[in-house]
Amino acid sequence: MPKKSWIHKIHLPAWVVGVLALVFILRIPSFFEPYYYGDEMIYLTLGQGVGQGLTLYKDIHDNKPPLLYLMAAAAGNLFWFKVILTFWSLLTVTFFFKLAKLLFKSEKTVKVATIIFALLTTLPLLEGNTVNAELFMIGPSIIAFLLLLDEKLTSKKIFLAGFLFGIAALFKTPALFDVPIIVFYWLVTEGLTNWKKVFKDTLLLLSGFIFPILLTFVWYFFRGALPEYVKAAFLQNVGYLSSFRPGDIQKPFIIRNAPLFTRAFVVFIGSAILWFFRKKLSKNFVLFSLWTLFALFAVTLSERPYPHYLIQAAVPISFFMAMFFTEKSFEQALVVLPLALVFFVPVYYKYYNYSSYAYYLRFINFATGKINKLTYFSSFASTVNRNYEIANFLVSSSFASDRVFMWDTDSAAVYALSRRLPPIKYVVDYHINDFSGKSEVAKQIEANPPKFIILTTKYQYLELNELIKEKYILIQQVEDADIYVKKTTT
């Protein structure tokens, strides 16, 4: 690995500026997307809650750490959320280029790696067009590795790198698996004879990692929401393990989590192989292999088939692919092994497939007037235009402080569009089903009835029938959605 510092005068070659320009151009269509993508809608709704003075996790709920919701609060709407992501992504690509330049002597390899990374984190192939935690968390992690791989590694840099890993984990907890990558890298490259230094540096790294997380604990303690924060942002995520196999929930712990243990064993065996052959492998190959192993373990924790999970592994994937296309060495052939593992994951777990070609063609047709706005919006989801109509009605018929309850898979989209919040802490149907219950929530709604209740024909809420019959009247119908307004009292 080249011995040189990454801390030098910032200079971007013309080709890097060109890559950044391409990333910006490829992200332009995302500025015109409608409110439709479920996760984005949840983030925006919680961001609106923060803007109205609600305390995350206690007053309004989701099960990720707080930084993404604070980003949404700062954005205020989907357009600015996408703009923030765009400039964050430009910075991320820039720091990736710096990391590639630190690791590779060949300018050709640096170019190929940077271009591949830019495309992987931008194209709809891995949902790069959507606002997701992975796109935010990889930036701090890349900077952390820049610090840790610097020739002049100091205690201050190790602590700061740990701090950045902690920031990444406050976007999404699987980022914590970036920490053992460097620890195992130290063990493999330094050897057990230098275990005391590795142990000391690891403690310092962990101290930096824990520090920002502890700060959030203190914050939510004084907000009176520490138990809710710990439970929602950390403990409830344990339930995501193997959550796409609900039929296994009644099986014994060992059997139910056997796939997870198998994947952990693969990481262990892979790390052991790297240790055994450490003297025959370059430090780069060891680092990228460890990064791939731990990233894929994090990616497959829940076994959910969402392509944007793979963004966590985009850095080592880009490096390995660049080595494959540009290097002429024994390791050029070896990279086939980790890349085979990378391609195995989306095939085995049947990841959803999103066509980049179709995405951009659709936007071009819209931009050139071949299709109108309604057709363009409906191409994202059949309920988009309905949700906009419902939101327009709510905006014109209520104040910002009025509460609305909608029982539908698109409830968060309506909350985000109308800038109206529910009377309970949960914003989508699966929150209620997974973390509470329809009967319990019905009691909460009865105790604090919202101005509007919206029900759709596909999603019945029988527990609210008596409340609606007694205190509400049907005021509007929008396609399959019935909008009930609370009766005024005299």
Automatic annotation (TrEMBL):
Bilayer-crossing regions: 12-32, 67-97, 109-126, 132-149, 161-188, 203-222, 260-278, 284-302, 309-326, 332-352
Entry keyword annotation includes Magnesium: no
Statement: the UniProt record of this protein carries the keyword DNA-binding: no
Keywords (A to Z) from UniProt: Membrane, Transmembrane, Transmembrane helix
Protein name as it appears in the record: Glycosyltransferase RgtA/B/C/D-like domain-containing protein
Organism: Candidatus Woesebacteria bacterium GW2011_GWA2_40_7b
